[in-house]
Specification:
The structure is a single chain. The chain has 330 residues and is mainly α. It has one domain. The radius of gyration is 23 Å and the shape is globular. This is EamA family transporter RarD. It is a multi-pass membrane protein. It is found in: Cell membrane.
Length: 330
């Protein structure tokens, strides 16, 4: 074989490391988007699953969700040999305290959401997740003393106007939407305090383990009142209830895989899939009514979200440009 000259090498350049890195980054981002679409899409279709569990009431559904989620998480931890991580988390008082609070916040969210779906209020539930980003911004201001940019203030102000309009539309404060937005927003803030110290499955396992005694008590109470359906409606209903563990854990695993591959901006944009899917299901498959006043209220919310997303993208691009201009090693 002949020796390759410098001119030949220049005319037939081999792929450089930066090129490979860019290609790998694009592939990772594409995978992250797919996982994100899977997670938020499955969360968006949750109303259909909960309606399959009727005539079980919201308390029985959530109690089963807690118990079966814990069982499914235990199986995953065993399969992945993750009991060491679990033991380390259990020994950390700060992690245990934080995740215990998170557990009670998420059960409030679950109870409210299942109640909304099973009582024909899926549209209002979707509203809660539409305004959740605005609540998260407010939490940043109130708790973390963050300073909002002008567009963020504008989005929050428009969101407040939307709540007022929807209050008149519903004839009452849209409490389902507000409880969902507040509970999930505070839940996200609390989980952020843990950071990367525990993975998604370990976190969900601890949260559900803390809630399990209460879930068992709720199951006993429902049984004593003659309202339990788990063992009363045949094998099909039993396995639908038992599948709550899978239905809860799989989107969470998808979300974890997506969050590890995408920027916070990417995740922030994808999260709107869930309420959009919920909203479409509510007005098409479930036939829930949308009056003109509610369309106006929802439209105002969407305007606020467009402003918030615009600010998010502009800020992200500016930050990216500054990082690219920064000297290497600075």
């Amino acid at each position: 074989m002949g020796t390759v000259t410098s001119s030949q090498a220049q005319s037939n350049p081999l792929p450089t490391t930066p090129q490979k890195a860019v290609k790998a980054a694009k592939s990772e981002a594409a995978t992250g988007v797919l996982f994100g679409v899977g997670a938020y899409g499955l969360w968006g279709m949750m109303p259909l699953y909960f309606l399959l569990l009727l005539p079980a009431n919201s308390i029985e559904i959530v109690a089963n969700r807690v118990i079966w989620s814990l069982i499914f998480c235990a199986l995953i931890i065993t399969a992945t040999r993750g009991w060491g991580k679990m033991a380390a988390a259990l020994k950390n008082r700060r992690i245990m305290g934080t995740l215990s609070i998170a557990g009670f916040l998420i059960v409030i969210n679950w109870l409210t959401y299942v109640f909304a779906v099973t009582t024909g209020n899926t549209i209002e539930a979707s509203l809660g997740y539409f305004i959740n980003p605005l609540v998260s911004v407010l939490i940043g201001v109130i708790v973390l003393k963050e300073k909002l940019r002008p567009l963020q203030w504008l989005a929050v102000g428009i969101g407040f106007v939307a709540v007022v309009v929807l209050t008149f539309s519903y004839g009452k404060l849209p409490w389902i939407a507000l409880v969902l937005a507040a509970s999930f927003g505070i839940y996200g803030f609390v989980k952020n305090r843990v950071g990367g110290k525990v993975d998604a499955i370990t976190s969900l396992s601890i949260e559900t383990a803390v809630l399990t005694p209460f879930a068992i008590a709720a199951m006993i109470a429902v049984t004593l009142m003659g309202q339990a359906t788990l063992l009363a409606l045949g094998a099909g209903h039993f396995w639908l209830m038992a599948s709550a563990g899978i239905v809860t854990a799989v989107p969470l695993l998808f979300f974890g895989a997506s969050a590890s591959r995408l920027s916070m901006t990417g995740i922030g944009l994808l999260q709107f899939m869930t309420p959009v899917v919920q909203f479409i299901i509510a007005i098409t498959l479930l036939g829930e009514h949308m009056s003109l006043e509610r369309w106006i209220g929802f439209s105002i919310v969407w305007v606020a979200l467009i402003i918030l997303m615009t600010d998010m993208l502009v800020h992200y691009r500016k930050a990216s440009r500054l990082r690219s201009l920064a000297p290497v090693g600075s």
